[in-house]
TrEMBL record:
Residues 397-530 form the GGDEF domain. Gene3D superfamilies: 3.30.70.270, 6.10.340.10, PAS domain. Keywords: Cell membrane, Membrane, Transmembrane, Transmembrane helix. InterPro entries: dCache_1, DGC-Regulatory_Protein, GGDEF_dom, HAMP_dom, Nucleotide_cyclase, Rev_trsase/Diguanyl_cyclase, Sensor-like_sf. NCBIfam families: GGDEF. Residues 308-361 form the HAMP domain. This is Diguanylate cyclase. The chain crosses the membrane at residues 288-307. The keyword Transmembrane applies. SMART domains: GGDEF. PANTHER family: DIGUANYLATE CYCLASE DGCT-RELATED. It is a multi-pass membrane protein. It comes from Duganella margarita.
Amino acid sequence: MQPLSRFFFSFKFKISALVVALLLFAGIGAGGISLLIAESELREVIARQELSLLTGAAAFIDNDLQNKRQLLKALSEEINDRGLPLSDLQSLLEAHETLRDTFFNVNAFDLSGNLVASLRDRNARRINIAERKYFQDTLRLQEGVVSQPIKSALSGQPVVVITQPLRDADGQLIGIVLGAIDLLRPSFSAQLDALRSGADGYLFIVAGNGVTVHHPDKTRILEKGDDAPGTVLDAALRTPEGWEDGLLDDGVPVLLVHKHLREVDWTIALSYPLRSAFASMQSVRLRALLGAAVLTACAGLFGWAITKKLLRPLAKLHEHVEDISAGRADITVFDVARRDEFGDLSRAFYGLSQRREQAEQELHHLATTDVLTGLNNRRLFDAFLPQALARAARSGQPVALAILDVDHFKDINDTLGHAAGDQVLVEFARRLSAAVRASDTVARLAGDEFVIVFEQLSCPAEMHVLGKRILEAMHAPFTLGSVQRVVQASIGIAVTHSAGVDVEELMRAADQALYGVKTAGRNSFAINTVGAERVALVRGRS
């Protein structure tokens, strides 16, 4: 905030010097008016800057909820397509490792509300949720809903539940599946708290009924706040988005900025103490008011003309903020070389904008990176593969997709423990990244399942070389503490060199090739051309 302080000091000095030289003490009044105008302009600029940061956080939460709903929908569609009875759901849930990474727990219930399957504990005590509103809404609407924040009957933790109806092969409703998001887990709360790391104020989220979903004080989660007129909660829920600076939060005057989410009836808000938000204004406010008290009509008119001219840089700065909010410019417009008040202030906002951009990049990195291996995760892969197919269609070059499994990975976990299993996954990912080309994209989907997207292939036959290279990279034993273990991989590769192939066709062809490898004894790779009725070639087995 030092550049802002220098701005106000220099601005005040120039106003005083000019007006004293022309109209003696009458200029002090004009200086006071000019500072009040500057304060009004800066309040709006700072508030809009914070609202822009909050909009990015809201978009992150919306995208995260949407991805979780899509995952449950895909699970329900798999149950429908395979015509599975409720008695087989326990095994199906346990087979989906992605669910463990995404949800705190996933449960299935029959139409009477009785628990029939639980991802985290197959021996969980039997409960009935027929009286839960989200269960009744799901059956009534026959579509998925997001619940209000509640206390879980299974774990006792504060959770938000996402539901999805289950149907049999004939399309008849047979039950519901629900995924629980633990509101105390770092995967939900730490990313939000990180946005205010090192800064005053705090972020919080409230549901439409006033119940707290997220708060730095974890004891407030699931509590209904005070929504009386004039309170912070009332201001946050009154309009879809906006800001106010005339509120008290636990007796402290604050700037409140809030934004309503798209996917669910939640509002994310920032409570920012005024002493921090507008710290640079406090030191000059009293002098500005004293100067305005002795303003004369003549000095006032003359002072207004002068200050209006001096405030043009502020108006320009305000235009920059509006252009950035509208997408017409980026934050580099704040990085100016001027050595005056406008330059100091603009560079200060440039630094603030860089921190916001860095926070957005960190959020994106957290959302698209696998925590264990450092590879791309499934979310990035799902977005990247359709783009790769589109590029291949435009260029006419072949594109290939490889799906890899670590052979007998469950045995490693069972015999050496999960810590050793994690070591295998980390080393497997490192060798895999080193074996492929710089133009190839490697991702971990879940558990021991990895994928590689091969672009810019000179010809489909190039995959023979790449497949052998990957198997050779795994040949040396893996060092797991004091134990060395041979780790092998099965690779199913799908190649396409024609336009019009979609993601599902490519994934299905790769799965077919992988199945052929496992049937043939594993530790090999198979290449399947999209559209072929069987695996075209199995190579590389040792």
